[in-house]
Write a structure and sequence with these properties.
globular; about 210 residues; Nucleotidyltransferase, domain 5; six-stranded mixed sheet; alpha/beta; single chain
Length: about 210
């Protein structure tokens, strides 16, 4: 685990939830404590254009940023598991090919590829004025009040955001709620209030400190 400090600003940040081919991407923009815009689309290029239109300096994504290299769980996933925060183990790309369950991970890969020319993928050290990185919404939830149960995700996660002072009335489904949790994590990252798990070879996961 690593902890870093950054200077703060009031620039917009964005969070993106990644789904399968039919669901696509759900995105929420956050600025100065308010959710100011949201978008859903199946085209990752349009989602990146939307991020740039909103001048998002930090983009947090709910999808693996890199595949497992050896077939076991990634270091970031093992670090979270050691804290009793469990998530699906990301497979190798070869193992995931042809399996419908992993289609959303391939969509995440497409999104990171679209982001790559505009946003630096966070590897544990922030160097660019535009950063993107991987998050895990359940880990963000655990950062609110310690370990939380997985069940009743939509209601529990809306309540957590509302408890932080956010207006959640426009978050009409769990995908926008998770995108909002991504945006919240991006805000904490920008303020220097975050921890990172993993390493650059298989990806870093960011959690609010």
């Amino acid at each position: 685990m690593s902890v870093f400090t950054q200077t703060t600003s009031k620039r917009t940040v964005a969070g993106i939830d990644v789904g399968g081919d039919r669901k696509g991407f759900h995105a929420v923009a956050l600025n100065d404590g308010r959710f100011i815009d949201q978008k859903t689309d199946c085209d990752p290029e349009k989602i990146v254009e939307w991020c740039l239109h909103n001048q998002a300096s930090v983009v947090a994504v709910d999808a693996p940023c890199l595949w497992s290299r050896k077939g076991g769980s990634r270091l970031a996933e093992r670090h979270l598991a050691a804290k009793k925060i469990y998530c699906f183990a990301t497979p190798t790309r070869e193992r995931a090919e042809g399996r419908n369950f992993y289609r959303w991970m391939f969509n995440g890969e497409r999104l990171y590829q679209a982001l790559a020319s505009k946003y630096q993928l966070f590897d544990g050290k922030a160097r660019s004025r535009r950063i993107c990185f991987e998050i895990f919404p359940h880990a963000t939830m655990c950062s609110f009040n310690g370990l939380v149960k997985v069940g009743r995700k939509a209601a529990t996660r809306r309540a957590a955001l509302k408890g932080q002072g956010y207006d959640v009335s426009r978050l009409t489904n769990i995908d926008f709620v998770d995108a909002a949790l991504c945006a919240f994590t991006a805000k904490k990252f920008r303020a220097g209030q975050y921890a990172s798990y993993g390493e650059c070879e298989e990806g870093v996961i960011v959690v609010p400190a």
